[in-house]
Design brief:
The two termini are 68 Å apart. The protein folds into 4 domains: 84 residues, conserved putative lor/sdh protein from methanococcus maripaludis s2 fold (Beta Barrel), CATH 2.40.420; 88 residues, Elongation Factor Tu (Ef-tu), domain 3 (Beta Barrel), CATH 2.40.30; 59 residues, OB fold (Dihydrolipoamide Acetyltransferase, E2P), CATH 2.40.50.100; 68 residues, Helix hairpin bin (Helix Hairpins), CATH 1.10.287. By secondary structure, it is of the alpha+beta class. The strands form 5 sheets. A 6-stranded antiparallel beta sheet has the order 2-17-21-20-19-18, with no helix packed on it. The longest helix has 36 residues. It contains 3 helices and 23 strands. The N terminus is likely disordered. 26% of the residues lie in helices and 37% in strands.
């Protein structure tokens, strides 16, 4: 009888544990809402037989203005977007030390001028006495030497004044040409450092494209060639002409810089817009480049990847090996194939297995 009761107890315990396990499994079912995402298909450049490369628009006439002196910024006289004229004051830098140096130089000029005039009088007087044989050669030589020394000191003092005046131009930053302010990097009270850009300006209306051409194709690019430039953000194609072709890729990662002058257009283009430049030459390299936007790349330590869409409509992190950057896109060497779908942006935090709702 005791054995029977014992068996019933074990059976009840096993039933209880089994029931609890079933309830636990039901509790971990994921009932979280799906994350809304936007997707895109892998882009390749292999559809056209002609050479196409990425580029970036910039103003033909632009400048980053800096100073050669260190000092606190007294006032910034312009804001981003302001139109300025050549010679207009843009930034004022504290120049109290230059003012003191200028006062010292002016005092030195006054002293050197007085000494020069006195030496000149003595020289002229002894010159007449020497002509009348009333002064010796030694006295005449001494007066000549004194006069030349006084003259040299006065010239030195005047050159120091020119140096100080030149330094004043770096305490008052003015516009080198008429244009529009595109960037302001300092505010009143900031420290201005030599060589660090304070304000950037450019002349609107005349633009050029800086494009990077791979080494396998650069030999076909000639100066004066007419090209088509597609401005991606406004979906317009503008004609351009190759004006410069670099002959070195030393500091550009194996790609060669090509400058293209854009024709004047009514299209609303701005500096910094990305473009696709199509050259009227047939590509030598027939391999397709798999390109994805840089903003879709996920970085974890030294690993890079992006989220793709699985068959069960969940996010799947795919690790990639990346190559060169072309404007706002990056080349995928391995880990992703043409035609695959990947996630560009999400309205929540993605993770492996996260339910997604493709928009």
């Amino acid at each position: 009888m005791k054995k029977y009761i014992y068996l019933l107890t074990l059976t009840a315990t096993a039933f209880f544990l089994t029931s609890c396990g079933s309830e636990d499994k039901k509790a971990v079912v994921d009932n979280s809402p799906a994350i809304v995402v936007k997707t895109s298909q892998v882009d390749t450049n292999g559809n056209s037989p002609f050479l196409s490369v990425s580029g970036k628009i910039q103003a033909s006439n632009s400048a980053d203005l800096s100073t050669r002196m260190m000092g606190y910024v007294n006032k910034v006289h312009v804001n981003v977007g302001d139109k300025v004229k050549k010679g207009q004051l843009l930034v004022s830098i504290n120049n109290a030390d230059l003012q003191a140096k200028k006062a010292q130089v002016n005092a030195g000029i006054t002293e050197a001028t007085a000494a020069f005039k006195n030496a000149q009088k003595d020289y002229n007087r002894y010159k007449n006495l020497f002509a009348e044989n009333s002064a010796s050669q030694k006295e005449m030589d001494d007066m000549t030497a004194n006069f030349e020394v006084a003259k040299a000191r006065l010239e030195s003092a005047n050159q120091m004044k020119n140096e100080v005046n030149a330094q004043f131009t770096y305490s008052n930053i003015t516009a080198p040409f008429s244009g529009t302010v595109t960037r302001k990097n300092v505010e009143a009270g900031n420290m201005a450092n030599p060589g660090v850009p304070l304000v950037s300006i450019e002349t609107p209306g005349h633009f050029e494209v800086m494009a990077m051409v791979p080494e396998t194709e650069i030999s076909e690019i000639k100066k004066g060639t007419t090209v088509d430039v597609l401005v991606k953000s406004i979906h317009q194609t503008i004609k351009g002409e190759v004006t410069e072709v670099s002959t070195s890729a030393k500091n550009t990662g194996g790609q060669y810089l090509v400058k293209i002058d854009l024709e004047k257009t009514e299209a609303n283009i701005l500096s910094g817009m990305f473009t696709t430049v199509q050259f009227p030459i047939e590509r030598k390299s027939k391999s397709e480049l798999v390109l994805v936007p840089s903003e879709a790349i996920i970085t974890k330590g030294q690993l890079t990847g992006l989220y793709t869409v699985s068959q069960s409509n969940t996010a799947l992190l795919r690790w990639l090996r990346l190559g060169r950057t072309y404007g706002d896109q990056v080349e995928v060497l391995s880990g992703l194939n043409a035609g695959e779908t990947y996630i560009v942006s999400a309205e929540g935090k993605l993770f492996n297995g996260a339910k997604i709702n493709v928009q």
